[in-house]
User: Fold this.
Amino acid sequence: MSDRLLVLVRHGQSEWNLKNLFTGWKDPDLTEQGVAEAKAAGARLKALGLTFDRGFTSALTRAQNTMKLMLDELGQIDLPVSRDQALNERDYGDLCGLNKDDARKKWGEEQVHLWRRSYDVQPPGGESLKDTVARVLPYYNQEILPAVLRGERTLVAAHGNSLRALVMVLDRLTPKTIPAMELATGVPLVYRLKADSTVETKQVLAG
Assistant:
């Protein structure tokens, strides 16, 4: 049995991250900086001597391209990668495509902060973080976790909120503590799990 390795990486900076827009299920690509972040993530994983048996990503371009760029750096371009919208970013509904500053002017600082940072308050027509967790966790439990526990070294490239759902479980965060937890773009979180699926070690590969 090889080690039970699970690496989570938020996609590199996207064009809409740069423009300060609510992105959600919209599909902008990576910026030049985002490409560089994805390549750097792959290089940091390679520097640790890590290789992978499985990959998982979302149905969105920015996560898929982050995965591809990391695998290029790792020399593993033929890695089997599963794509599923269960790993998509949180759906911000009517906020998608809006500038965050414009949204604050329209609805007020307090309301927008509540939509962005509360656990269970939905933006108009969209998902709360609680909804995102309810979408992501079944996929993790059915597809990703069994692979890791079989000893398949697993790389996941996804999004800030879909990965927060996983980190919430792995780091044993609560609905009160998870909203304050930020994930930087292009920074791998390297977990090794125990046989009971709890975390043995965690390493953050910041630049």
